[in-house]
């Protein structure tokens, strides 16, 4: 019996544990190990050192990485603005608006907003480049010059690179909140609304006092999850602005990527920088666990046979 | 006398109610109108670029970008949609509505055929049947006004297509098997770290894998898996597995215990009950997870870029990326659009077909 129980456990859980160990636990350990070496372009370790951390933070007479403060500031602006404007507020607006329309129209607009999420990143990147590039054929310039009578084309990627990447990521992020909140709003019992109506509540009072309080947990969940994914996302930035112009959109994740893969091949330094990203990642993920009610999701097994 | 007075009062009351009803109907119409205007305006920045991509793929010619097709199409399409919508409100019978719509769209298509029709062609899709399209591009472009232009040789698009298919399909297959097993065990068995293991799945899903780009690169290099499709399959499996286990566990929770019990009473072992009785109940969940993982694998870009350098291992994402690189200066918008449309199509089709399954997924008590 006991043996059978063990075999079942290995059979059912084993593969998942193996894969998770291989792709999450092992890489974290490898990352920490690499960060204490001088692994570079030639993929050879010659010494064990703490140079990478000294280089990043600055100890003694080593000065801290000159670019880091700017990179961190840009990351905070990028994550904060995208998160607050698009991934939560705008997503919530979309969910509220589409759920108050007849279901067909609502589904249509939700489908439109899912387009960016469904399209492969490379395609989404081209669409953005074609829309905002500095030539007079870009979509923005056609409208600016054709409708608003601008004489010269404008280059949004040069003028407002940060705004471009915030909106580009926001359009994708908004749909995440939209979907989760739409289902959450649909799950709110109808009778709450009827009761509030009887008490004389208007549309805004309904949203303020019935809908929003019910969305607290999904919103917390979205907030934490999206913070995490924004902190490490660089795919779209890489494709649209490449971190430029003059590092204006070089956020932390793309900074690591450039250090390790683009030109310099400083894998060890990249690994050390990654370590600083793993820490908040683990902390936020644990916080997500705290606020979620895991017990509630577990039902007692009613069969004890193995 | 009393009768007349009460009748008058009743009439007045009725009038009052009518006014109220009319006002509330008006307010509702206004609110709905406002919502439509908001949603349409907010969605335009998303809709127009995609629409442009579509028109370019079927109309653009070599050397130069054009929007000659975009704006006329919009000027034809938008009024037609508006008219359709207005007619849906105005029409009194379904038959009237159908006739009206038919008239509107026949006229719209006729205008479209006359104004835009002549510019439409399928030439941009030549990359599908001509492996050497880029070398031919080189001759044409160089002959025109870019003497220094030299074309990279691309692998054939179907090689990239097959690679993407192998990666997405392989990852989907592995994830669905492993996630079904683990989801079932977490959902149905009592063991020591049961809650912890579910929480771990949630945490790992939230924990972003792109952070681990460098260590995964080093690991793959150590394992000698650089430049293999298998490495990318493994990475995608690793990234998507926690989420898949979580979702599958939710689907297993919804399967009634009774059918499993009756299977056991009939003499099945737990494993047999799982394969023959429980698994068929969660087919919807397996479809949802498969679609999700497949689309994810289909679009993977960063890990492919980092883990493979040989052209023979290019996926559709890298293929598209390099076609863009080559033509980003306005050399061949039509080709880029056609490749993009070809690349995007499978995701769209899958997504549309599977939408009803995707909406059944629950994320940690939150439907999504």
What's this entry about, in short?
Chain A has 306 residues and is mainly α. In chain A, 73% of the residues lie in helices and 0% in strands. With 368 residues, chain B is mostly helical.
How would a textbook summarize the main sheet of chain A?
Answer: none
Strand content of chain A: under 5%
**Strand arrangement, major sheet of chain B:** 1-2
Compressed to H and E, one letter per element, the order of chain B equals HHHHHHHHHHHHHHEE
Helical content class of chain A: over 70%
Description:
- The complex is a heterodimer of chains A (306) and B (368).
- Chain A has 306 residues and is mainly α.
- Chain A is 73% helix and 0% strand.
- Chain A is built from 15 helices and no strands.
- Chain B has a two-stranded antiparallel sheet with strand order 1-2.
- Chain B has 14 helices and 2 strands.
- Chains A and B meet through helix 1, helix 3, helix 4, helix 5 and helix 8 of A and helix 1, helix 5, helix 6, helix 7 and helix 8 of B.
Task: Offer a few descriptive terms.
heterodimer; A: 306 residues; mainly alpha; 15 helices; flat; B: 368 residues; 2 strands; 1% strand; disordered C terminus
Describe the protein's topology.
The complex is a heterodimer of chains A (306) and B (368).
Chain A: H1 2-35, H2 51-57, H3 68-99, H4 103-118, H5 121-132, H6 139-146, H7 156-159, H8 161-186, H9 190-198, H10 203-214, H11 216-232, H12 235-240, H13 252-262, H14 267-291, H15 294-297
Helix pairs in contact in A: 1-14, 2-14, 3-4, 3-8, 3-11, 4-8, 8-11, 11-14, 13-14
Chain B: H1 2-59, H2 70-90, H3 94-115, H4 133-144, H5 157-188, H6 194-206, H7 213-222, H8 229-253, H9 257-265, H10 270-278, H11 283-299, H12 302-307, H13 316-327, H14 333-358, E1 362-363, E2 366-367
Antiparallel strand pairs in B: 1-2
Helix pairs in contact in B: 1-14, 2-3, 5-8, 5-11, 5-13, 6-8, 8-11, 9-10, 11-14, 13-14
